[in-house]
Amino acid sequence: MEFFERHKSIATFISFTLFCIISLSVQGSGFTLSLEGIMSAIIMPFQKGYNGLHGGTSRLWAGFSELDRVRSELELTRSKLQTFESADVEFSEIKKENDRLRALLGMKEMLKYDSIPATVISKDPDNWFRTLIINRGENDGIKVNMPVVAYQVAQNGEVKELVKAVVGKIIEVRGSISKIQPLIAPEIKIGVKIGENRFPGLLSGYTYNSNLCVANYITRAAPIKFGDTIITSGQAGVFPPGLIIGTVVKSELLETSPYQRAIIKPFIDYNLLEDVFVIKKAPDKDLFDLFEEIK
Amino acid sequence: MIVTYIITAVIVLISLLIQSHPSFDVIRIAGVKPDLIFIIVVYVGYSFGSFNGQITGFVGGLFHDAASNSPYGFLALPKLTVGFIVGMIGRSVLKSNVPTIILLLFVSTLLKGIITLFLSYIFTQGMLSSIIHVIIPESFYNALLAPPLFFLFDKIFHGELEREGYL
Known about the structure:
Shape of chain B: globular
Radius of gyration of chain B: 15 Å
Strand order of the largest sheet of chain A: 1-2-5-4-3-12
Number of strands of chain A: 12
Oligomer: heterodimer
Structural class of chain A: alpha+beta
Largest interface: A-B, 54 and 54 residues
Largest sheet of chain B: none
Distance between the termini of chain B: 15 Å
Radius of gyration of chain A: 23 Å
Structural class of chain B: mainly alpha
Number of helices of chain B: 7
Distance between the termini of chain A: 49 Å
Strand content of chain B: under 5%
Number of helices of chain A: 5
Shape of chain A: globular
Strand content of chain A: 25-35%
Order of helices and strands of chain B: HHHHHHH
């Protein structure tokens, strides 16, 4: 006992180090998850409170700038209305044609999913892991592996339009908060397709602190050019097919690999992200299990 | 000493809230932001010895892990190690002046980064490019932010430092 009293600093250091190493070795086990849950439950009310306080203060001081924003949003809505009115006739024709072709091909009706709106209350507390925490959780019906999307204004010629694009997927759910793994995280894996030519690839984050992604395992035969749109393939069973991810900024042929890869700029500006939508879609079990096996 | 623990816990919590809030992104430089919790860990180690430094590093790191997508213990282990090492040197060896504090934080952050990179190779997905993209920029950032924060902490902990005979 006297020995420990005399060397309490070193004894504590060894105990804490062992604790961390054991915790890292059994990561994802019930033990670490419940410990993390306790810590998370302690800081969660403070995170929500701070977020509410910050939001309230910002709203209080943003009176005049808010007016400007409302005015610009009104202009944007007007221009969108004009576009939609002119496009309405065209869309109904395309839909009819699409329905007819689907019926001919015997394809299933595309599924529509409900979504849960949420606000980002925490973002990247460290420089190593890309993390988003939202103010909705298990109590709101959110489950692990649900896809998360957001809307972003895009310039399409003269017209600005809102585009729905992928943010990431839910990886952890607590009572009233959830953690999102964004698509710029190097640990994420998403099945994607090059929009123009439908060649498949596997997308993950580029590096720890960049806002870019990389699509690997694209066949060398695929013609990839700057600006090609990347969409979800739906092959891993988590994301519905056809969701926009981003655009190609560079393609690379590696001498050591039989594949090529593409560097992708996500459509969603991660730095400006505030509101997201969680799509209430459970993973397609068979596809998901298969993908997890080969990952 | 209990007052020191309470004040430290409050500062760590406030730092975590500020650091993890989306609005803190505005101070990102070269893709990185400063690690406020780590600066506190170094301060506590430097001012109150290795025992307090490592406790702050361990507890602060576990809270940091809980708010991040990192595996549990990943951010705590480097912080507790640096807290312990800095505490062994402390105020008795390094005099409290601006160049010393800048150098201390720069070297400490480098050490933390190297331990984190080592852990990431073992437990997650290690990338050597993190040295350029994360470790070095964060070291500069923490080092530049440390003198005003140390000055502020000296004011907050003045009574405790005097009582414990560290001043």
